[in-house]
Each structure stands twice: as C-alpha cells, then as structure tokens.
Amino acid sequence: QVQIVESGGGLVQPGGSLRLSCAASGFTTGKYVMSWHRQAPGKERELVAFIIGVSGKTQYADSVKDRFYISRDNDTITSLQMNDLKPEDTAVYFCGARHSSYNYVPAHWGQGTQVTVSS
C-alpha cells in the first residue's frame, strides 16, 4: 500500500530556513516522480518542485527558484530545503508521487505539513 508522510513544517521568521521531508512506504522512489505542492488559504494548490527518480531531473516554480531545493536523499526519503523564506511561502505543503518518468501530477498524496513564515 502506497503511503506518503510529510514532516518538518513549523513556524519560521522571514529569511529563515526549513527542511521538509517526505517519507514513502510501500514503494521506493527510483521510478517515481516525487513532487512538492503547496496550498495557501483561499488559493489553489500549486506545484513547488518535482524530481524525476530515473534521471534526477528537477524543476521549480519561478517563485521558489534559487531558494528551494528538492532532493532524493535515499530510496524512500525526498526532501525540500527551503531557504530565505518569505511570508508568501506560508502554506500547507504536500508531497506527491506518481509512478512515471515524466508526469509530475501526483497519483498519491500525503496529508500535508503547515509552514508559517512570520515575525
């Protein structure tokens, strides 16, 4: 059974950093596209970044380029390093997974972890 659990969210001041982790169970991520998405109050869920397991290729939303970094730490953990956080990064962050070599739209979702950027 495919399960995804996010962790690492919390409250951080503007300019600070957080590292989110996405733990997969029931599968290994080598043949999956793992992605991070976020949803702020009153807004639609949006793609933040994804990584393609078979190639290591990554892609980022323009709003987080050069601040956020996605990585496959091992066969079951995918992380999102978030630096220079801004209040507009406040959202619930979701990890997603799809068995694919190119499609980043998740077939499976985690429950989300709250990130709040505020002084």
What this model shows, in words?
It is a single chain. It contains no helices and eleven strands. Strands 2, 4, 5, 6, 9, 10 and 11 form a seven-stranded mixed beta sheet that branches. The chain has a four-stranded antiparallel beta sheet with strand order 1-3-8-7, with no helix packed on it. With 119 residues, it is mainly beta. It starts with a strand and ends with a strand. The radius of gyration is 13 Å and the shape is globular.
User: How far is the N terminus from the C terminus?
Assistant: 40 Å
* Classification by helices and strands: mainly beta
Taken from the alpha-carbon principal axes, the silhouette is globular
Q: What portion of the residues fall into strands of 2 or more residues? A: over 45%
Query: How many helices?
Result: 0
Give the helix level as a range of percent. under 10%
Give the biggest beta sheet.
Answer: 7 strands, mixed
Averaged pLDDT? 97
